Amino acid sequence: MGGSARDVYDYFVHFRMVGIFLGWALFIFIAYKTSQVEIDFKDFDPYAELGIDRVRMMLTASFQKLSFAGKLNEGFRFSTRAVM
Prior knowledge:
By secondary structure, the protein is mainly α. It has helices spanning 5-35, 46-50, 54-69, and strands at residues 71-72, 78-79. It folds into 2 domains: 1-40; 42-84, no CATH class. It is built from 3 helices and 2 strands; from the N terminus they run αααββ. Strands 1-2 form a two-stranded antiparallel sheet. 0% of the residues are buried.
């Protein structure tokens, strides 16, 4: 019915080596194909697409960062005192 233990071992070693070879061949093939892909870079400005002023959004983001870092008191002067 079955072969000797040595025959079974040789079969699995051979099967594993073939699997490793095919895996590397597949990896090399995919690496080659991805290196051949040409990507067309175009300028994409999400602010222009949405019709939003970029400078205004940057000022808003800067103001929000300052407000998270500490307390902004009247007159927009930055204060590092802890809020109690």
